[in-house]
Amino acid sequence: MAAARITVFNTLTMQKEPLVPTREGKVGIYVCGPTVYSYVHIGNARTFTSFDVVVRYLRYRGLDVTYVRNYTDVDDKIIHAAHETGEDPIHLAARFVDAFREDARALHLLEPDVSPKVSDHIPDIIAIIGKLVAHGVAYESQGDVYFQVSRYPEYAKLSKRHLDELRAGERVQPGEQKREPLDFALWKAAKPGEPAWDSPWGRGRPGWHIECSAMSARYLGESFDVHGGGLDLIFPHHENEIAQSEAAFHKPFAQYWMHCGFLDLEGAKMSKSLGNVVRLRDALQRVDPEALRYFLLSTHYRNPLSFSDKSLADAEARLEYFYETLSKVDARIAGRDFGKGPLHGEPGRFRTEFEAAMDDDFNVPGGMAALSGLFAEMNELTDKPPVKDKALVGRTLQALREDVRRISSVLGVFEDAPEAWLLRRRDRAVRERGIDVGQVEALIGERNAARAAKDFARADQLRVQMKGLGVDIMDTAQGTTWKVTPA
Ligand code: AMP
Ligand code: ZN
User: Fold this and answer.
1) Within a domain: residue 167?
2) Same structural domain for residues 393 and 443?
3) Does residue 270 line the site of ligand 1, with CB under 6 A?
4) Do 131 and 182 lie in a common domain?
5) How many other β-carbons are positioned within 10 Å of the β-carbon of residue 258?
6) Closest atom of ligand 1 relative to the 233 alpha carbon
């Protein structure tokens, strides 16, 4: 079976394990989504992009994936932000859901199969809390309901923390009605000006963790395959989800826990609450969205990733190389029939290498290395073919181009028409460097005239003059084109 080839690093066991879905051929995956009190930052985007590729790859391998990513639209931070703007909290959250959707589309993130919101699932949440109270693992106290951690013996199995140490670090805060410091809120009694719903314990709203137990059970079942999020969620969020779900349903919750490493700003921790953030929306304005995506995927998802302007510029330059190659290859093969017959070398080996890397805990950088090999091969076949047989070269290029398409569908990059991407990139560089396009075109016209008149000295002079303006000239079979000199 396809999935058995894929191994996943499971935070629960701290080792790579073969991915064996509970129901053959089907994978349910739940990823903790954004808390919609503001625009998401590029750290959030890293986590969502990593799981986007996980989902795409599982599908590529033929698995029938149900992908659920929630919106946390009931939360202290949302209430706080809404008080500042004077808006209704649910309205403010809806506004940021829309903003997130827009940014996600720009970053080529797939729309999950289900994107549930907390505010639409209050009855599910109340039902689970009711079960926990009935089982004696949760208790009501002055309109709040708490999960009693000491009643769930497996607590901290995900984070491997020691309960004694955790207890030593916790205090019951003033205003909290807990029995023990580690107990956490499932339901919070209504305070004036906060969104609230009726419940068996009076009006109130859910605590943070219970939402994911409720929404994952609703869409994936009480036991499901993969649960993901950023590293910071292991404790307490995911730990508490496990405790709630397993204590309510008496079944193992998620089989595989995947956690994405943090993105920081050249060594500085980034968090929305500290304010040291780069919004995804702003980054998308500054750089090509595919380049940002390529950068976010450039390091293995479990390793830390450092963001800088240089790393983005490097990603964009790399994409330019890829698109230039594709443009050249497309010009060579588009609409041509090279007939049937053998291929040169073993063009399929790059895709095999890509799959081997991806099967190994979604090693995207390893996959990208295979892709680099594939592009190098395409360049060699177009620029200095090692064999004379044009049909053989054409067929091989077609096979390689097709494999690029398949790999692109997994990575979510190079899906654009090469010419269109290259022109957009050039337009952006022209604007950034203040290049006068009219002047460039006039000089190219002059140079073409000089070449037609066989005045090559003048043509060369004009090339040098354009270089001085920051413009490189390329003479191709389709005529003379130009690009902005790389910075
Ligand atoms: P939040 O909106 O804060 O709940 O975060 C949404 C998702 O982004 C969660 O899975 C977080 O773990 C993840 N996340 C938050 N900050 C970062 C970061 N700097 N790098 C990577 N992932 C992050
Ligand atoms: Zn969650």
Assistant:
1) yes
2) no
3) yes
4) yes
5) 22
6) 12
On whether residue 154 sits in a domain, the answer given is yes
222 lines ligand 1 (CB under 6 A): no
Question: Is the model more confident about 1 or about 273?
Answer: 273
Distance 212 CA to ligand 2 centre (A): 5
What is the whole-number distance in angstroms between the Cα of residue 228 and the centre of ligand 2? 8
**Beta-ladder partners of 8:** 17
High-pLDDT (> 90) share of the chain, %: 89
Q: Which of 393, 418, 443 is the last residue of a domain?
A: 418
In a domain, residue 341? The reply is yes
The distance in angstroms from the start CA to the end CA of the chain is: 48
Can you give the residue range of the structural domain that contains 461? Answer: 435-484
Residues 315 and 209 both lie in one domain: no
- DSSP for 58-126, please give it: HHHTT-EEEEEE-BB-SSHHHHHHHHHHT--HHHHHHHHHHHHHHHHHHTTPPPPSB--BGGG-HHHHH
> Do 35 and 163 fall into the same domain?
yes
Given this model, what pLDDT does residue 275 score? 65
CA of 279 to the centre of ligand 2 (A): 21
User: Could you tell me if 91 and 190 lie in one domain?
Assistant: yes
Distance CA(87)–CA(384), nearest Å, equals 64
State the Cα–Cα distance between residues 326 and 415, nearest whole angstrom.
11
Domain boundary (236, 260, 284) is at 260
Contacts of 145 (CB under 8 A, 6+ apart): 129, 133, 138, 139, 185, 186, 187, 201
Q: What is the pLDDT of residue 1?
A: 47
Residues 26/64, Cβ–Cβ less than 8 Å: yes
Q: How many separate domains does the chain show?
A: 3
Residue list, CB under 5 A from ion ligand 2: 32, 212
Q: Is there a single domain that holds both residue 248 and residue 379?
A: no
The radius of gyration of the chain's CA atoms, rounded to the nearest angstrom, is 27
| Residue 212 near ligand 1, beta carbon < 6 Å | no
Q: What is the pLDDT of residues 232-290, one digit of tens each?
A: 999 999 999 999 999 999 999 999 999 999 999 876 776 666 667 899 999 998 889 99
- Ligand 1 pocket check for 21: Cβ under 6 Å: no
Closest ligand to the CA of 259: 1
For residues 216 and 211, what is the distance between their CA atoms, to the nearest angstrom?
Answer: 8
Nearest ligand 1 atom to the CA of 270 is 19
Distance 44 CA to ligand 1 centre (A): 4
Strands 224-230 and 254-260: parallel
Q: Kindly state whether residue 287 falls inside one of the protein's structural domains.
A: no
**Is there a single domain that holds both residue 256 and residue 179?**
yes
What does pTM read for this prediction?
0.95
